Each structure stands twice: as structure tokens, then as C-alpha cells.
TrEMBL record:
Protein name (Swiss-Prot/TrEMBL): Adp-ribose pyrophosphatase
Protein's UniProt keywords contain Hydrolase: yes
Record GO terms (molecular function): hydrolase activity
Matches recorded under Pfam families: NUDIX (PF00293)
GO biological process: one example: ribose phosphate metabolic process
CDD domains found in the cross-reference section: NUDIX_ADPRase_Nudt5_UGPPase_Nudt14
Residue stretches in coiled coil: none
Length: 184
């Protein structure tokens, strides 16, 4: 355990400067645990879920979806926002079905990650589940998304991480967590 682990700052003032569909930006004045007074911009982001879905014979459900942050289709696991009041595991099931047309069995939370603590409070829960079907049933995309999904052998996914074809931090974290702590 680190000596100063988990000490919290005290928000002394907060002002909303932008409100968007997925996130808000606030400017905060904070007294840090070291008694410094600092001003920071914070991206307040809805929580999200990232799902590593895999078949019994090691086929991983992968998505290619346009992502504005990299201005191209990015290869990653199914993922999405958790709706207000929605349970994380229910969100995982919903997102996989909506984006890919596949159904998953009982999902299990692996861990929760933060993407960039220096400016955002976004938390992404990493979930593992076995796929129930090897072919999609039907997709139900949000009106502003289109996702290409397919099953990819696990060893190929590992190679894509190694060769930088997969750059999603959530996907890489999910895969490494699975390989280290779940896979037998």
C-alpha cells in the first residue's frame, strides 16, 4: 500500500462551461490533499461498459466502428454507455445485442478502469461473457452508429494487440485481464 493512497481533494467551486450529449466540461477549484489550491478543467463523462465476449472454442467478438477521436474505424470489443439507472451487467447484454446481434450468457465484471484521470472522471467497467450464439440474430444500432462485427480467433486478437492494430485501451485492458486472471 502506498503511504498517501486514496486521499481526496475538496472541490471548493465548480462551474459548468459546456454540456454535450455524452459529456460535460466543468472548471473546478480544488484543495488538493497536499493543501494546494488548483484550478482544473474536468470532462464529466457517463459511465461505460466494455465487453470481451468469447465462444467456447476461443472466437472473440470484435467490432470495427468509426471513432471520432482517431477519425477512422477502430477495432475493439463491443462497448457503450450505461444508461441512467441501468445495471452494468444489463448494459453489457444490451450493448452486445444492439451493436452486434449476438447474445451473451451470464456476464461477469472483471474490473473498472479510468481512461485519463488527469482530465476526465470516465469509468469503464470491463466485462467478460461467453457468447451464446455463433451467428448474429439482429442488430439494433443507435441512429448515429454502424458497427461491423465478426468472430476472430483469440490468438489473432492477441497478435493485433502486439502489432498495434488494436489500440483501444479498454480492449487491451480487458484482454490482458482475461488472459492473466480468468483464462485457465
Amino acid at each position: 500500500m502506498l503511504a498517501n493512497e486514496n486521499r481526496h481533494g475538496q472541490v471548493q467551486a465548480s462551474k459548468n462551461v459546456f454540456s454535450g450529449r455524452i459529456f460535460d466540461v466543468v472548471q473546478e477549484k480544488i484543495k488538493t490533499p497536499d493543501d494546494l489550491i488548483v484550478e482544473r478543467d474536468l470532462v464529466k463523462h457517463q459511465p461505460a461498459v466494455n465487453i470481451l465476449a468469447i465462444t467456447a472454442d476461443d472466437q472473440v467478438l470484435m467490432n470495427a466502428e468509426y471513432r471520432v477521436g482517431v477519425n477512422k474505424e477502430a477495432i475493439a470489443f463491443p462497448a457503450g454507455l450505461i444508461n441512467p439507472g441501468e445495471d452494468v451487467l444489463a448494459a453489457a447484454k444490451r450493448e452486445v445485442l444492439e451493436e452486434t446481434g449476438y447474445e451473451i450468457g451470464e456476464p461477469h465484471i472483471m474490473t473498472t478502469v479510468t481512461s485519463s484521470e488527469g482530465f476526465t472522471d470516465e469509468k469503464v467497467t470491463l466485462v467478460f461473457a461467453e457468447l451464446k450464439n455463433k451467428a448474429p440474430i439482429a442488430t439494433h444500432f443507435d441512429e448515429d452508429e454502424y458497427v461491423n462485427s465478426q468472430l476472430v480467433p483469440l490468438q489473432q486478437v492477441i497478435e493485433w494487440v502486439r502489432t498495434n492494430k488494436i489500440t483501444s485501451s479498454q480492449a487491451i485492458s480487458s484482454l490482458l485481464y482475461y488472459l492473466q486472471f480468468i483464462r485457465k
